[in-house]
Known about the structure:
It is built from four helices and 21 strands. The protein has helices spanning 2-15, 17-26, 185-193, 203-206, and strands at 32-36, 52-56, 66-74, 87-88, 92-93, 100-101, 112-121, 133-136, 165-173, 181-183, 198-200, 217-224, 227-234, 238-240, 245-247, 256-264, 272-275, 280-285, 288-289, 309-312, 320-329.
Amino acid sequence: MLTYRSTVLFVLGISLPFSHLRLSAESVPAPMDLRVGEGFVGPIGFHALSPTLSWKLPVSSTAKSQSAYRIVVASHPGLLPDEADLWDSGKVASQESAWVRYAGKPLVSRLGVHWQVMFWDQDGKASIWSKPAYFELGLLEKSDWRAQWIRLDPDSAKAPPAGSVVIEKAHYGEQGKPEHLADVQAVLKQGMDQGKSLIIANNDLAGRDPIFGVPKTLSLVVVRNGKREQAVIPEDTKYDLLTGAIVTNEAGFVPQHLRREFEVAKPIRSARLYVTARGVFEVHLNGGKIGNDFMAPGWTPYTRKIETLTYDVTQNVSEGKNAIGVILGEGW
């Protein structure tokens, strides 16, 4: 059976050159510079469930404009262009060649996506197919993340005893004007539950600016060790919820160095590193820095979202023993 299939492919390969040359001579050149989303070329870790696809028309003396296009999308390059299993747009009468919305089968985490496009010019002549382009989905659902948050716990950073601090009210903004206030009680309580009693009274607590251009304060009503206390903390002031003290001479953050060894029992075909941090980080794998990023993942409003990065580490992981290390710095 294998011999028969190989023979058929070989015969077809010999019979095609003359017709292929004639087709190329009569056809419009292929579209070029295929991109995904906001101009990405071959991204991995892509997070759009319904990405947009773009391409450029070739430089040609005959093809002046596009009158229609056809996009095919597949989970394997061998399925293009005739057996696309994810999406075949069919011939679409349109001049659009930028940010055309994908409308095929649902995309899933880690899926590798291959796609091609062809177009018809102003005279209705069809181009040849573009070269295949590729992008790869990242971890799209929270359930895809099987890892746990890790950090080094400084000796002095112990969680406060349960019930020692109760935050009854916490409003940030322009006091006395309810429409200019943000309720940040839940944010402060979440931080306390994680052992983080030190806060900064700024817009990050609210995830927004409650009132632009006006000095703001954080108004607190706290029950601390059985005693109800009120406090008003000026904007950009550091405050310790556990002690009730304003912090003026806090020692600088010392970067944490995390390291773990692991073993791989089989040869590596493909390996991806999905990573994020509530702070800035730098990853090393088997002694080599991963990626070209600095201060990754960049500025992040942690109260609203966590940015993630994906790296192709196929060449960095080896069969047998490996070691991964992370330098973890303070966030923005």
